[in-house]
Amino acid sequence: MATIYDLKPEFQALLRPMAARLVRAGLTANAVTGTALALSLAQGALIALWPGARWPLLLVPLTLFVRMALNAIDGIMAKEHGQKSVTGAVLNELSDVVSDAALYLPFALIADVNAPLLVLVVVVGLITEMAGVLGPMIGASRRYDGPFGKSDRAFGFGLLAVLLGLGLSPGIWTTLMLAAMLALSVFTVWNRACRAVAEARG
């Protein structure tokens, strides 16, 4: 099932020159991964500290775009510039789930947002990533199946942030949006798990 992740090759092609410049400057893929994590933590802190303000929410799409770019760049540096490592692989997977939690959980502090539902969306999102990394443990590939992977989740929360940041009051529309994100996330967990098992069985 198609997801925003399918656009990654084209996105990486645009970022290859920048990745090469960073390598020449002496930076490592792990340093780029750490920068993306720090950016996510900072953005989440802004929302948590000022849950009633609009400006932190309007920064979310920019933060998500930069994070996505950094994630693509660290992958290019690791795979194409000889910086691949076991430590980097672990850091990459852990930083993704920590970044998601740090960025999205503070939305629950916004007045009139359905906090329990939002937390559930984040938790199932983390389970989605776990379902993806289980593949290699059973002899399959790392699964990125949709319909609601990391990039799609970022788009969903980015859109939510923009609408709230522009002044739309939370209400039934935010609850319906979160419910849709939850349903898509649950289906993604199922899809990734089933495809990993099918691949492992050959």
UniProtKB/TrEMBL annotation:
Keyword Transmembrane helix assigned: yes
Keyword Transmembrane helix listed: yes
Membrane-crossing segments per the record: 25-49, 55-73, 117-138, 159-190
Keywords per UniProt: Membrane, Transmembrane, Transmembrane helix
Matches recorded under Gene3D superfamilies: 1.20.120.1760
Top-rank lineage group of the source organism: Bacteria
InterPro entries cross-referenced by the UniProt entry: CDP-OH_P_trans, CDP-OH_PTrfase_TM_dom
Name of protein: CDP-alcohol phosphatidyltransferase
